[in-house]
TrEMBL record:
Pfam families, A to Z: PilM_2
Protein name: Type IV pilus assembly protein PilM
Xref: NCBIfam families: pilM
CDD domains listed in its UniProt record: ASKHA_NBD_PilM
Length: 347
């Protein structure tokens, strides 16, 4: 066998403010990160305005920088552009499941199914005591056919061949359930990738993607700093370290983060997600919250979230093992692109 043959995986994240590209290269028995590129982008709003040309031009420039012009790539669509619903279905063959999900979509999605591309993603197979499948935990995914057509058009105009479109939740799951991260994952943990306009929240329970939600919080670059002075920030650090506790909840001094601040909006959305999941899974205790994505680098955000939510919070970095005791660690802004690339990695 010729282990010198090189193989490549090219993953593209069309982010709001930048295009991120990760290229994985197979050399001998292990994968290596051979390219990591972040390039300014007009964002997918350009696509929604019908301005495919500007976005395609930015993508073409990013691809040239990464050295992947005219290559095959994979990408994903997320946020409010994609409708997701979690449903429970009886076990059935795959073809029947696809038909059943479309029938379910007609009942719960207020858009004609003829205008949508609808796919099921089986998150978990529930087993009986005898090991027989009794239920399917399914993520129903729907996106408009016109959006998918225009999304493909971006790559066509950029000279790239788009071979697959994935989901943000699955990207996060690959990184933080399969251990391609620093620190190593807990058995039950929540993960949120914080973007400039949309964040993605998931819960991983015993390596299974248990819950998915998109959070619409606009973290505009001009408004990234909360109204906190140095003395208050010291209080946050002390509270986050557990120096002031009330029962099982961390105490947060009143007025530390303004109710109208962007940090407060993010805290509220994450708290709602945690509360809803806990309502569905009353016996489940989430061990930690992992924050990742470019927004995870906002000054003091991990301490603020830990103090507000009463939950250990860590910043998660994507990382690729390349050999015994060797890893390549990435900036959190590349988490989505890296998780996307992992879909093609056979372990």
């Amino acid at each position: 066998m010729n282990f010198g043959v090189k193989r490549y995986i090219n993953a593209v994240d069309l982010g709001q403010n930048s295009i991120k590209i990760i290229q994985l290269q197979k050399m001998r028995r292990s994968w290596h990160i051979s390219q990591q590129v972040s390039h300014p982008s007009p964002g997918l709003e350009a696509l929604e305005r019908g301005n495919v040309a500007d976005l395609a031009a930015s993508l073409q420039e990013a691809a040239a920088i990464a050295g992947i012009s005219k290559s095959k790539v994979i990408s994903f669509i997320g946020g409010q552009r994609v409708i997701t619903r979690q449903i429970t279905m009886p076990p059935m063959p795959w073809d029947d499941l696809q038909k059943a999900v479309i029938w379910e979509a007609e009942k719960i999605i207020p858009i004609p199914v003829a205008d949508l591309e609808i796919r099921p993603v089986v998150l978990e197979e529930k087993l009986s005591e005898l090991g027989e499948v009794t239920q399917l935990h399914v993520l129903m995914v729907a996106a408009s056919k016109s959006l998918i057509y225009r999304f493909n058009e971006i790559f066509d105009r950029a000279g790239l061949t788009l071979t697959a479109i994935d989901l943000p939740a699955l990207n996060l799951w690959r990184v933080f359930a399969q251990g391609y991260c620093v620190p190593q994952p807990k058995e039950i943990q929540a993960v949120v990738d914080i973007g400039s306009q949309t964040s993605h929240f998931i819960v991983i329970k015993h390596n299974i993607l248990s819950y998915v939600r998109s959070l619409s919080v606009n973290l505009a670059p001009a408004d990234l700093s909360p109204n906190i002075n140095d003395d208050d920030f010291q209080i946050i650090q002390e509270v986050a370290a557990g120096n002031e506790l009330t029962g099982s909840h961390l105490y947060m001094p009143a007025g530390l983060v303004d109710d109208d601040s962007l940090y407060a909006q993010l805290v509220t959305e994450i708290r709602r997600s945690l509360d809803f999941y806990r309502l569905q899974e009353r016996d489940t205790i989430i061990e930690q919250l992992v924050i990742t994505g470019g927004g995870s680098q906002l000054t003091g955000l991990d301490q603020i979230l830990q103090a507000e939510l009463g939950l250990p919070v860590v910043v998660g970095y994507p990382a690729l093992p390349t050999g015994p005791d060797k890893i390549q660690e990435l900036h959190p802004q590349f988490t989505m692109a890296f998780g996307l690339a992992l879909r093609e990695v056979k372990v």
